[in-house]
Design goal:
The complex is a heterodimer of chains A (553) and B (622).
Chain A: H1 3-6, E1 11-18, E2 25-31, E3 35-39, E4 48-52, E5 56-64, E6 67-74, E7 79-85, H2 87-101, H3 124-127, H4 130-140, H5 142-158, E8 166-172, E9 177-182, H6 195-202, E10 211-215, H7 219-227, E11 241-245, H8 251-266, H9 272-282, H10 284-303, E12 308-312, H11 319-331, H12 338-350, H13 356-359, H14 376-390, H15 399-410, H16 422-428, H17 430-433, H18 437-441, H19 444-450, H20 475-478, H21 486-534, H22 539-551
Chain B: E1 8-15, E2 24-31, E3 35-40, E4 45-49, E5 53-58, E6 66-72, E7 77-82, H1 85-99, H2 108-111, H3 118-126, H4 130-137, E8 144-147, E9 163-166, H5 171-179, E10 188-193, E11 198-203, H6 215-226, E12 234-238, H7 242-250, E13 264-268, H8 274-288, H9 295-305, H10 307-326, E14 331-335, H11 342-354, H12 361-374, H13 379-382, H14 396-410, H15 419-431, H16 442-448, H17 450-453, H18 458-463, H19 465-468, H20 497-500, H21 513-543, H22 546-555, H23 560-564, H24 568-573, H25 581-584, H26 597-605, H27 613-620
The chains are: A alpha+beta (553), B alpha+beta (622).
Biased composition (Acidic residues) (chain A): 538-553
Region (Disordered) (chain A): 515-553
Subcellular location (chain A): Cell projection, Ruffle membrane; Cytoplasm, Perinuclear region; Endoplasmic reticulum
């Protein structure tokens, strides 16, 4: 195996592990093909740390005499330090980690080697196949099928105009308003038009109704895109549509924002002014507000105006997905369940071709400048968290679920987030060769950790507030490693206990009442039988009395 | 009342203060002797106490009427549009008169009648007994005693009558020391830590100037130091920034010279003065009240206001104090300039961190009564209860409550009370509805005969205790006298939305975990009761045998209930205490409540026959 070549020193004894808010641990460090393993090897209290190499964002080496230290910065934003005695060993280990954490071949990634220790109840790969989802739709309103088919005729020809894909999201079955996403139209500088595209887009309109196009770029950016052959829908050719521009940032600007934010959160010495100005300078919260606002706008067009909505940016694989998926969370209670959210991610992110591998290759600590990284998915999760925070009872999942998704998008033993689109995924044969994250998450045992104890299905549309005073820093991700969380965790536990106890008591009361009732009916039947047998003479009198009772209740 | 010219105005509009499209409710405005009342078309009532009004402003006339903006001390801001200017003018003038009171006797507390009889009123005032509280702390003891020096407010007018001082501090020392302290506020005991035998003492700045010294004052500090057998040195905390303290020297005041006092460790902690705090809050409110605020403007506004920096400074000072007491077992003397603002903040927060008693509902009342009311925090001046010097107004007490709120966020299980409790106290500090916070010091309160003429707030809060209880509170979390060690890294301090936007519903989370948990734990208690009853019933039922039958038959002059009525438990079974629907339903789940809704309103407005997209584009792009 070629990993062996990369591991120069597989093991170092007497290493010391430093983690913030934990006591330091002495133990042995081992390197394997995919993991960095630290074990305290103490009899009384064995502590082990397993870290995926792919979770390592960057490392730093420091030397003090012959004692070397390696600072490991992870993609999940954690920072740990390992002290390794011996300069050579330390250097070897550092270079091994560096090599193993930057493997460029996807097929060498851990998901291809991971063998699950759990029994697969339901295979996550086949849980959300498009055909299956589609089936549900079709079975609901069959007449809508023909509508879709009629559209499909246009799709082919329309593709000449659009860069990438066109997808329909049927929102309301009875009143067909649809939310669509696409890429930009290729109008170019000379304003090309495509009749098929116009027909296709118009086919989604209800008679007499207008539609809205939400362009996730500023008008300026959209105009500039024409020079590169892209562009936006011309009013003349799409007279029934109103175009709205909402500026959502992309790519390296987002990546820089994340780097700045994490830097600000990691520095404990900042005074208040510096902290606030750093938080402001990162612009992270601004982006959250922008995305949420655009999503709310899209949702509003559908819910309030009853209009169809088309969302697109440039490629239709980043900001477009943030907007369409958040709009669905706002509108559709199903998307707020665990299954529904998973299905939303599969539909709106994986199948829609969000390039996870490119976007999540590096996280906040990487120094290497690459253009394709961007925390688009993390921003989306943050927006979901903001809504969850404002509607804490309307989601079946909890914050931990979102954090877990964030971790797995960046480094995972599962194949779900590998590859950049469906095409790549099928070429990699992920379905055959790797495990799906959903297979693991959807086990009843694991599911318990992701469930929100306060969940009560809420069929309403949930409109979050986007005022700056209502938005909050997602502490569960950004301050997770920077402060002791004991008291908050305990409070969370206590809350769960109260909810569980409440359920227990309710069940008990119910069952006791049932018991009493059964007993009473039993007794009554018995008694009445006996009474009947024992005495038929009094019957007439009793009847009289009963009549009286009825008269004066 | 002679000030009220118009008592009722119809068709008044109440604007949403954050809406850019002038969304409004129409209703009727009533002016009473104590309140301004607005009832909208849905019969929802908005009550505004005259004493809560901080400022009334009449804006220039518009086509829809005359706008009237009212700012309240509890951070409510209402924006009315009165159709006729004359009415608006009348109301404006009346409110100006009514919101400014010249005499204590005109305050609401003197006319407020909660239907309590006299003995209840007296009992209410006796609810908090400070002598009892000092006893709980463990004084008087071998080192500390009650001094009668100030029994007639002769030495210090702004202190309470009962003061605790070291046993070794004789009357001449006290008198001498008080002459050397600003406003005569000499060092006295504020909190005694039984286990560490360390004391938190408070006083005002010494009149040291550039070189003056006072032997009695030096003796006084020595006496405090000696009263702590476990540590030979003591800390003197000057809660002001060093620069301010130095400037005071020119005015013949200043701070302790370490050379003149034996075994003291002197420390500045840098909390700004009341004027800085006042303008800081002003800036904060300006920012948070802006329409269409962007995130960056909000954050930079928050930074520029310095508000959170001040909150952090207060809490940092308290943490310093607590470390000295808990880690070094040292006694600490805290002072600022006059020893009634910053000193109150630091001493009370320090005690709160040290002693879990103050984290209970009753204990918190005692803490406020002790460190704020009795030691003469000038509530009347700071909260502008009477028409007075606007330079005396300052949100010192609000900062204290906000610091406590920050602690409750960090330690969700350590406090018996919840946010609503803090908000309610804040409400009543300004409402002048109860006598507790009236006046500037105990002497003034006695002269006003508040205990006979007004009511105490505390029994009313205790009566509705359920509303203020923290369902997650765990007394075992902090067995007696245990220490809270808050993390004061900047990112732990958050903007207190529920205080500064308490009345702006659209900004709050639509569902509250807290309320839900509160209802659940309440319901749990009820269910436990039910189970007990049901258990008894089942037992009784199974104990019944056929022997009873005969008896029952004889009594069956009323067999009807058996046949006609369903047994009571059957009826009960169906509703099964619906999980408080009010909480579950999502109030304000309504696009119109949110800021982005304005885009839609503009869109629908621009719905002309001819599709002029240019218009739409120009409006819609960002």
């Amino acid at each position: 195996m070629e990993f062996a070549e990369l591991i120069k020193t597989p093991r170092a004894d007497n290493a010391v592990l430093h983690r913030p808010f934990h006591p330091t641990v002495e133990g042995t460090l081992c390197l394997t093909g995919h993991h960095l393993i630290f074990s305290s090897r103490r009899q009384d209290n064995e502590e082990e740390l397993w870290l995926l190499h792919s979770n390592i964002d960057c490392i730093e080496k420091r030397f003090l005499g012959s004692l070397g230290s390696i600072v490991i910065k992870c993609k999940d934003l954690r920072i740990i330090q390992l002290d390794i005695p011996g300069m050579e060993e330390c250097l070897n280990i550092a270079s091994s980690i560096e090599a193993l954490s930057t493997l460029d071949s996807v097929t060498l990634m851990y998901p291809f080697f991971y063998r699950p220790m759990f029994e697969i109840v339901e295979d996550g790969w086949s849980a959300f196949l498009p055909e299956k989802e589609f089936e549900v739709l079709n079975s609901v309103v069959s007449c809508f099928l023909s509508f879709i088919l009629s559209i499909c005729i246009y799709v082919r020809r329309s593709l000449r105009l659009r860069v990438l894909r066109l997808c329909f999201l049927i929102w309301d079955y009875l009143f067909p308003q649809v939310m669509m996403r696409s890429s930009q139209p290729l109008t170019g500088t000379n304003g090309r038009r495509c009749k098929e595209d116009e027909k296709l887009v118009n086919a989604t309109l209800r008679p007499g109704k207008r539609g809205y196009i939400i362009d996730t770029r500023s008008l300026n950016a959209a105009q500039q895109a024409r020079a590169k052959g892209g562009g936006f829908e011309q009013e003349v050719y799409y007279p029934q549509w109103r175009r709205i521009h909402r500026c959502i940032e992309r790519f390296n600007i987002l990546q820089e924002s994340l780097i700045k934010l994490v830097e600000a959160c990691n520095d404990q010495s900042h005074n208040m002014d510096r902290w606030l100005s750093k938080l402001e300078a990162s612009n992270w919260m601004t982006y959250i507000k922008e995305i949420l606002t655009a999503a709310c706008l899209a949702a509003q067009c559908i819910d309030r105006e009853g209009a169809s909505v088309l969302v697109h940016g440039t490629e239709g694989t980043d900001s477009t997905l943030q907007v369409t998926s958040l709009a669905q969370i706002i509108l559709d209670p199903d998307c707020r369940t665990i299954q529904g959210f998973e299905s939303l991610l599969v539909r709106e992110w994986l199948q829609a071709g969000h390039p996870f591998q490119q976007r999540c290759a590096q996280s906040a600590y990487s120094n290497s400048k690459q253009k394709l990284e961007a925390p688009v998915f993390l921003l989306f999760l943050d927006c979901v968290w903001q809504i969850l925070h404002q509607f804490p009872c309307s989601f079946e999942f909890n914050e931990h679920f979102l954090v877990t998704l964030f971790e797995h998008a960046y480094a995972s033993q599962f194949g779900t987030f590998l590859g950049n689109n469906e095409n790549e995924r099928s070429k990699l044969k992920l379905q055959q060769k790797t495990m799906s994250l959903w297979s693991w998450v959807n086990q009843p045992k694991e599911l318990k950790n992701f469930q929100n104890p306060l969940f009560e299905a809420n069929s309403l549309v949930i409109w979050p507030s986007v005022a700056p005073q209502s938005l909050q820093l997602w502490e569960g991700v950004f301050l997770r490693w920077n402060r002791p969380s004991r008291f908050l965790d305990e409070a969370e536990e206590e809350m769960k206990k109260i909810v569980d106890y409440n359920r227990f008591l309710q069940d008990k009361v119910n069952s006791m009442r049932k018991q009493i009732m059964e007993k009473e009916t039993e007794d009554r039947i018995d008694r009445m039988d006996k009474m009947d047998r024992m005495d038929k003479m009094d019957e007439m009198d009793e009847m009289d009395e009963m009549d009286e009772m009825q008269e004066n209740p | 009342m002679e000030h009220i010219r118009t008592t009722k105005v119809e068709h008044v509009k109440l604007l949403d203060r954050f809406s850019t499209s002038n969304k409004s409710l129409t209703g009727t405005l009533y002016l009473t002797a104590t309140h301004l009342l607005f009832i909208d078309a849905n019969q929802r009532e908005t009550w505004i106490l005259h004493h809560h009004i901080a400022a009334v402003e009449k804006l220039p006339l518009t086509t829809s009427g005359c706008p009237l903006v009212i700012q309240c001390k509890n951070f409510r801001i209402v924006h009315f549009v009165v159709p006729r200017e004359r009415d608006c003018h009348d109301i404006y003038n009346s409110l100006l008169q009514l919101s400014k009171t010249a005499k204590y006797e005109d305050l609401y507390a003197f006319s407020y009648n909660p239907k309590q009889n006299e003995s209840e009123q007296v009992k209410g005032w006796q609810l908090i007994d400070l002598a009892e509280e000092y006893k709980r702390m463990g004084v008087p003891n071998d080192y500390w005693q009650l001094s009668d020096a100030n029994r007639d407010y002769k030495i210090c007018e702004t202190y309470p009558r009962e003061l605790y001082v070291p046993r070794t501090a004789s009357k001449p020392i006290i008198v001498g020391s008080s002459k050397f302290r600003s406003k005569g506020r000499f060092p006295v005991l504020s909190y005694y830590h039984k286990d560490k035998k360390a004391a938190i003492c408070r006083c005002s700045q010494p009149l040291s100037g550039f070189s003056a010294r006072c032997l009695e004052d030096e003796h006084m500090l020595q006496a405090i130091s000696k009263a702590n057998p476990s540590n030979r040195y003591m800390y003197v905390m000057d809660t002001r920034p060093k620069l301010n303290a130095m400037a005071n020297r020119a005015a013949g005041k200043g701070y302790e010279n370490e050379d003149n006092y034996s075994n003291i460790r002197f420390q500045f902690v840098g909390i700004e003065n009341i004027h800085v705090m006042r303008s800081s809050l002003q800036k904060l409110l300006e920012v948070s009240g802006t329409k269409g605020l962007s995130v960056n403007d909000f954050l930079s506004g928050l930074e520029n206001s310095g508000w959170l920096r001040h909150i952090k400074a207060v809490l940092d000072a308290a943490v310093f104090l607590v470390k000295a007491v808990a880690v070094e077992s040292a006694s600490v003397l805290v002072h600022c300039s006059d020893g009634w603002d910053r000193t109150s903040q630091v001493c009370s927060l320090g005690a709160l961190l040290l002693d879990s008693y103050y984290r209970t509902i009753k204990g918190f009342m005692v803490l406020i009564e002790k460190d704020w009311i009795s030691f003469g925090h000038k509530f009347s001046d700071r909260c502008c209860q009477l028409d007075g010097d606007p330079k005396e107004i300052s949100p010192v007490f609000t900062q204290f409550l906000e610091s406590v709120w920050n602690l409750t966020e960090q330690f969700p299980q350590a406090f018996e009370y919840n946010e609503a409790f803090l908000l309610q106290i804040h409400e009543h500090v300004h409402s002048c509805q109860f006598g507790n916070f009236l006046g500037n010091c105990q002497k003034e309160r006695e002269e006003l005969k508040l205990k006979e003429k007004t009511y105490s707030l505390w029994p009313f809060l205790l009566d509705e205790q359920k509303k203020y209880q923290n369902p997650l509170y765990k007394p075992s979390f902090s067995p007696n006298l245990t220490l809270l060690e808050p993390n004061t890294v900047s990112f732990n301090f958050k903007f207190w939305r529920n205080m500064y936007h308490q009345f702006d519903r659209s900004m709050h989370p639509r569902q509250s975990v807290y309320d839900l948990i509160m209802d659940m734990s309440e319901q749990n208690k009820q269910l436990e009761e039910d189970i007990k009853q049901l258990e008894a019933k089942i037992k009784q039922k199974s104990g019944q045998s056929d022997a009873v039958l005969l008896k029952e038959r004889q009594q069956s002059a009323h067999p009807a209930p058996v046949m006609l009525k369903t047994p009571p438990c059957f009826k009960k079974d169906q509703p099964l205490i619906p999980l408080n629907d009010a909480v579950r339903t999502i109030e304000g789940s309504n696009a119109a409540d949110n800021r982005y809704s304005e885009f839609m309103e503009e869109l629908s407005k621009a719905e002309p026959a001819i599709v002029s997209l240019e218009y739409g584009v120009a409006r819609m792009t960002c």
